[in-house]
Amino acid sequence: MRIDIITVSPELIQSPFEHSILKRAQDKGLVSVHFHNLRDYGLGSYKQIDDTQFGGGAGMVLMLEPIDTCISELKSQRDYDEVIYMTPDAKTLNQGTANTLSLKENIIILTGHYKGVDQRVRDLFVTKEISIGDYVLSGGELAAAVLCDAVIRLIPGVLGDETSALTDSFQDNLLSPPVYTRPASYKGLTVPEVLRSGNFPKIDAWRADQAYERTKNIRPDLLDD
Ligand code: 6GU
Q: Where would you find the membrane-spanning parts of this chain (predicted)?
């Protein structure tokens, strides 16, 4: 998989890709991530990338031309499955979307800033818009890093234990059951007996029950569908 990230702040998004699982995925050649500084495609000697909005109002808007130039250059080099725009005014990211995206070959992720991008960017180039939740971040960069983490860890071969992504919370619309490690007893708090019983069918049943109870208490909305 190849991911091209277009941003006004590459420095804000690069470091998560230099550590842990995201780094290992790249080292293994399972994904390549490329950053493009929108400023490099800016207009004139000031490399202008934003302007005030028509109709008035506070906040700058990212201009159409620099984004067009950058996306067109990328598209001239290869075909893209999706051009994703990170914005709070979109459908919220979920595990299903992450699963779908993990199967794509080439994607572009555009991150907004300031007041966002000229609407015509969205009309002309963007194929999918994603928010990561109902709150506002200063820019789409951190949201793009969140999206990439959720997607990249699902690419086959990225996680050491092939099955571990499958038992994650949300993979099956249930929250994860509680987990414990040594010591079996600590300051009077003991690990549930069943987990130390060695009876694996019983352990599975206990975990399924706990997952359901947790979901019912914390996220009943997940049980609706
Ligand atoms: Cl994708 N961008 C911004 N700026 N804020 C957000 C977001 C995205 N998702 C939730 N809040």
A: none
Least Cα distance to 211 among 170, 166, 181, 150 occurs for: 170
Candidates 80, 208, 98; CA nearest to 158 is 98
The pLDDT tens digits of the residues spanning 89-107 come to 999 999 999 999 999 999 9
- Going along the chain from its start, the domains and CATH numbers come out as 2-152 (3.40.1280.10), 172-223 (1.10.1270.20)
132 labeled binding residue: yes
Predicted interface score ipTM higher than 0.90? yes
3-class SS of residue 59: coil
137 is in an annotated binding site: yes
- Read off the DSSP letter of residue 92: B
Ligand 1 centre to CA of 87 (Å) is 5
Count Cβ atoms below 10 Å from residue 79 Cβ, excluding itself: 7
Contact predicate 6/110, CB 8 Å: yes
